[in-house]
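Assess this one:

_____
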Amino acid sequence: MSFFFLILFLSGVFGENREVFPQFKGETLSGSIVSLDDFPDARAIVVSFWASWCKPCIKELRKMEEFYRIYSQSGLVVLAVNEDASRSKKKVESIVRSNKFSFEIILDKNGTIKKSVGISELPTTFLLDGKRNIVYHHIGYKPGDEKELFEKIIELLQAGK
């Protein structure tokens, strides 16, 4: 019986019928251009859509930062895609600095990335495997929501060893 559950688990982690996250390019806070192809060695990629006015977004990113500091050397990449208007860059920088976010912040100035993915609510978070397959997708945030995401990240990181 447990062999059956192992097969189900492995098909969920390594299954071929996954939707691929669309490729995108975005400008970081430092002005460089980043795309998903810039992380060929990543085993788990979190793409989190957020805004400075969204309190649940900031709470989720704080939890993500704690987790990222532990697992960034293990193949975890976090891309936090900010949905504020371009005139809010200073506010975004302030939030990033005050929270000591060390992952990549991408500015989606015109909402192009958000539109290409079909995002309508914030926060929205995706977990991708190293081939950009969507492994997990979650809309909204309340304390505790991160547990399932973190479990799935660990599965991907361990599967890539």
